[in-house]
């Protein structure tokens, strides 16, 4: 008996392909149905923009404060006018002339006594004086030479007269500095001696030695004798 079915007509031959196509189509339709959205066109107002319409800016109304005008100045006080009756006599001020005439007598004036002028004690620094004081033996040379000679003479005089044994008596050691200031007055005498040292004994000895300086020729400024201050540092080295 011959089979009636054609062996080439196999329906289940491409079943897997058809299943895959159908599955893909169903997934596409499902995804489209889920994401599909609708809008109500009646609520959408696109509106129209008119470029010809001008914008009108509303300016708020402000109230301007009006400052009241300042009050008028008070009226000036009326001047008080004193009315003098004709019967009252008014004393007038008479200004007499100070010029003399030939009828006036000339008063003799006694001689005026002029009080003697008191000369001030002017001090001129040693560095700027026109003519420096002259130490005995320093008469020659200019001012610079006289200054150098005076400094050397005073230094030699102090080294010769200063009591060098005083340091051991006072218990001093090392380097001792003594600052002495004195003045050479208008007569050439040494006055106003002041000394400063670490020990009062050194101050007293320095003042004693400076007081023994000889009389000098006074310094002169513009041809007049003046007082000249002088500063002298004394360094006393004590041998241990």
From TrEMBL:
Transmembrane segments: 16-34
Domain (TonB C-terminal) ranges: 167-237
InterPro entries: TonB-dependent_transducer, TonB_C
Keyword field: Membrane, Transmembrane, Transmembrane helix
Domain of life, source organism: Bacteria
PANTHER family reported for this sequence: PROTEIN TONB, PROTEIN TONB-RELATED
Annotated protein name in UniProt: Energy transducer TonB
Origin species: Mariniflexile gromovii
Organism ancestry: Bacteria, Pseudomonadati, Bacteroidota, Flavobacteriia, Flavobacteriales
């Amino acid at each position: 008996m011959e089979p009636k079915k054609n062996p080439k007509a196999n329906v289940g031959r491409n079943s897997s392909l058809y299943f895959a196509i159908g599955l893909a189509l169903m997934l596409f339709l499902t995804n489209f149905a889920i994401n599909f959205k609708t809008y109500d066109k009646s609520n959408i107002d696109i509106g129209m923009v008119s470029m010809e319409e001008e914008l009108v800016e509303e300016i708020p109304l402000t109230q301007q404060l009006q400052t009241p005008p300042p009050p008028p100045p008070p009226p000036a006080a009326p001047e008080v006018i004193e009315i003098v009756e004709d019967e009252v006599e008014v004393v007038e001020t008479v200004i007499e002339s100070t010029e003399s005439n030939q009828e006036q007598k000339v008063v003799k004036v006694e001689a005026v006594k002029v009080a003697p002028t008191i000369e001030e004690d002017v001090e001129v620094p040693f560095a700027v004086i026109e003519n420096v004081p002259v130490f005995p033996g320093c008469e020659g040379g200019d001012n610079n030479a006289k200054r150098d000679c005076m400094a050397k003479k005073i230094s030699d005089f102090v080294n010769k007269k200063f009591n060098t044994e005083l340091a051991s008596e006072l218990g001093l050691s090392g380097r001792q500095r003594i600052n002495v200031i004195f003045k050479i007055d208008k007569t050439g005498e040494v006055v106003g001696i002041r000394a400063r040292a670490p020990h009062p004994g050194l101050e007293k000895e320095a003042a004693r030695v400076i007081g023994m300086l000889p009389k000098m020729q006074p310094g002169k400024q513009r041809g007049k004798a003046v007082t000249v201050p002088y500063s002298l540092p004394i360094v006393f080295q004590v041998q241990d």
